[in-house]
Amino acid sequence: MLAAAFAALALAAAACSGTGGGEPTTSAPLASSPPAPTTAPLPPTSAPAPPTTPGGITPTDVAAWVATWKGALQQVADDLSAAVRAARARDLDALRDALGSIPGDTQEAIAKLGDPTTAPGGLGEDVRGVELLLNQATAAARRLKDDCLGTPGVACMTDVAELVGMVAQLMHALQPLGVNIEFHVGG
């Protein structure tokens, strides 16, 4: 499809660059133009075809980058999921354990994500968004710990709802990165 678009673009350029002001569309130039666009543009388009992101980054490069941090982010997802499930079940011991893991695991995930300016394929803004959400989830987990492990009340329920919201936002933020992180917050 990309080769066809280049061929059409080459045909349009050949027709428009005709002989200075005359009718650019005649049957003769169109008949002789197709062989040149199909042979000339194909080698350049077939060479850059594997890179699908700016800067010549291939899907393999992005997959290798994702592999460096996916496990750490899955651990955060597991922690957040465990915290939500424990809060819903009113299991304070499980909640305490899950909340205790979130700050360290989110920091590890952020460290493994690395500097957003070095993210491949122009994904830096997406990485910044994920980092922001991870930091917000850490703050929400700290509030949840303060509000739910003592005498749970309305603030605890609000904090749990906020944490569930963070999970949804993280799932949405991860979509452009092409990574499947599983959250298990269901009842």
Structure overview:
The structure is a single chain. By secondary structure, this protein is mostly helical. It contains eight helices and no strands. It has helices at 2-16, 27-32, 35-39, 42-46, 59-89, 92-113, 124-148, 154-174. Mean pLDDT is 75; it is low at 1-43.
Topology:
Blueprint: H1 2-16, H2 27-32, H3 35-39, H4 42-46, H5 59-89, H6 92-113, H7 124-148, H8 154-174
Helix pairs in contact: 5-6, 5-7, 5-8, 6-7, 7-8
In short:
The chain is an all-alpha fold and about 190 residues long. Helices cover about 70% and strands about 0% of the residues.
The SSE order reads HHHHHHHH
Strand content: under 5%
Model regions low in confidence, pLDDT < 50 over at least 5 residues: 1-43
Tell me, briefly, the overall form: elongated
Briefly note the structural class of the backbone: mainly alpha
Helix fraction by DSSP (H/I, runs of at least 4): 55-70%
Q: Please count the helical segments.
A: 8
Q: Count the strands? A: 0
Gyration radius, in Å = 26 Å
Biggest sheet features: none
Descriptors:
8 helices
